[in-house]
Specification:
CATH topology: Structural Genomics Hypothetical 15.5 Kd Protein In mrcA-pckA Intergenic Region, Chain A
Shape: elongated
Order of helices and strands: EEEEEHEEHE
CATH class: Alpha Beta
Helix content: under 10%
Largest sheet: 5 strands, mixed, barrel
Number of domains: 1
Structural class: mainly beta
Strand order of the largest sheet: 4-5-6-7-8
Number of helices: 2
Length: 125
Amino acid sequence: MAKSQKRPQRKKSGAFLKDFRKKRQNELGRDPSHTKIGETQVKAIRTIGANIKLRMLHANVANLYNPKSKTYKKAKIINEVENTANRNFIRRNILTKGAVVETDAGRAKITSRPGQDGVVNAVLV
């Protein structure tokens, strides 16, 4: 069955809303990409208006920003340390925005959305 991003089935009061029409293509959603740590792999997806969205499936390198020296460099991702989105993502090594990862330059917090942007940007913590 297709994923839908339609309005909810219930009102704030708890009463059911009448389902008055079928699903529309512009309301369809997709499964999350669940970007994992591994050899870099990116998938291009066609979106509405013939635009392209890059989905990162695996990542092992992050664009790391150092706030002290105000410089950028590429750093290898070693392990995931903390994730506020879901505690089970730590053990599965799923990268999301806000996750803290261990890199060869130190701990860094991911600032981009790898499943949406197709790139891992991070800031040293």
